[in-house]
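Q&A log
Question type: sequence-to-structure
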Amino acid sequence: MLQPAIEILNAHRMMAISTVRPDGWPQTTMVGYANQGWAVYFLIFRPSQKFTNISRDNRVSLAVSGEPSFLGEIKAVYAGAHAVEVTDPAEPTLAWRLLAERHPNLDDFGLPDNSETALMRATCKYVSVLDYSRGIGHTEALVVDADEA
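Response status: OK
Response body:
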């Protein structure tokens, strides 16, 4: 059986990601993502404030959830993570394949030119799982160690 947080990450395609602005305030935006376990891949534009923020301070916060039909179906993952640009030569192909599988609208495109975009990996560290099917407000917290990530 998969860890419930991984099941939730596997079930969705969009996440909110918060970065730390230079003035210390959070900035939250929505991005498409794909994951392999605790590694969450997403693509951003290099000129964006998000890329600038991550380049300066790689701590990010992620939030993933669907839209439930009723309160008892709410399941969500919140994670503090470290985001870095994918630089390992083999990893961009894997990340792009995962993104294209999760987002079929990317099928007609190849791996984007990295002069304009950055393929990023956020590795989850501090994770909270919200699961109202186990009771209203039921939350479990865990810390992902480096070996699990």
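Response note: Helices lie at 4-11, 49-56, 91-102.
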